[in-house]
Amino acid sequence: MGFLSGIADRFRQGLERSRQAMSQGLDGLLALGRQVDESMLDELEELLLAADLGAETSQEFVSRVRAEAKRTGSLSAADLRILLRQFLEETLAGAAAPLELEARPSVVLMLGVNGSGKTTSTGKLAAALRQSGKGVLLAAADTFRAAAVEQLEEWGRRSGTEVIRQGPGADPAAVVFDAVKAAMARRIDVLLVDTAGRLHTKSNLMDELAKLKRVISRQLPGAPHESLMVIEAPTGQNGLQQARLFHDAIGLTGLVLTKLDGTAKGGIVVRIWKELGVPIKLIGVGESIEDLQPFDAKIFAAGLAGE
């Protein structure tokens, strides 16, 4: 997905809080020529856990540091950074994947609980795709949250993108049916569907989302082409549990991880990939449109561990 630019700089800026916490911790661990011993390794594991890498990943890295210290005889803070960067790159191998937007129209379901930044991410993605020259249509299928349709329409105005909508409380499946029909008739490149994150009825959210997928696939075999879940990085374990529920019920094709700039726990990226195995397709590292970026494992590892 090459329609966004300046990825490396924005990644590094967005990871500033996580990088500072990690850098200060690594410097402190090996200050004044301290030797790598079990006490130091325990502190290292605590530092990694505080960054939300998870117990298994933290223990794996500590084992690597222990082995490297035995092999070389000593390690500096700079050595630790290099080891961490290499370890993160290896651990995140395969985590990045481009959006699948080859079909015309390509239908993208935007999923996530209320408050995760789902509608905002949908609007930012629409704006970025429009800037790249693609024809985009938005579907306001979150008809259960009062402000969701208005919020999406505002993004439509800002990006010059039409929004297919119905009245408050309308059947989301009816909105999606109309949107797919319109996208096909107008030969639109990408249809982005903003879905509900909570229902005000007794219906199960996952049943409702599964219904939307069926409506889409009946009209357009092979669609939706992407089912992306938006997760706030600062939510940590809660976000991971939510993603697992959505993945089990809907079958996610990718994740959009937002608000990485608002947390010192950037290690949650590693944990999500290791525990879910779902590609991380987009990262949000700020409020502007340009701060929604394709995920890149090497840039992330350098941004978290430091150069």
Structure write-up:
With 307 residues, this protein is of the alpha/beta class. The protein has twelve helices and eight strands. It has an eight-stranded mixed sheet, with helices on both faces. Helix 2 runs antiparallel to helix 3 and helix 2 packs across helix 5 (77-91). The longest helix has 18 residues, at 55-72. Mean pLDDT is 87; it is low at 1-5.
Task: Please describe the topology of this protein.
Blueprint: H1 7-14, H2 16-29, H3 38-50, H4 55-72, H5 77-91, E1 106-111, H6 118-131, E2 136-140, H7 148-159, E3 162-164, H8 172-185, E4 190-194, H9 205-219, E5 226-232, H10 237-250, E6 254-258, H11 268-276, E7 280-284, E8 292-294, H12 297-305
Parallel strand pairs: 1-4, 1-5, 2-3, 2-4, 5-6, 6-7
Antiparallel strand pairs: 7-8
Structural class by secondary-structure content: alpha/beta
Overall form: elongated
**What share of residues are in beta strands?**
5-15%
> Strand order of the main beta sheet, please?
3-2-4-1-5-6-7-8
- By oligomeric state, this entry counts as single chain
Helical run tally: 12
The topology string of helices and strands comes to HHHHHEHEHEHEHEHEHEEH
Q: What's the number of extended β-strand segments?
A: 8
**Unreliable parts:** 1-5
Biggest β-sheet description: 8 strands, mixed
Helical content, roughly? Answer: 40-55%
- What's the N-to-C terminus distance? 25 Å
Q: Rounded to an integer, what's the Rg over CA atoms?
A: 21 Å
Q: Can you give the mean pLDDT?
A: 87
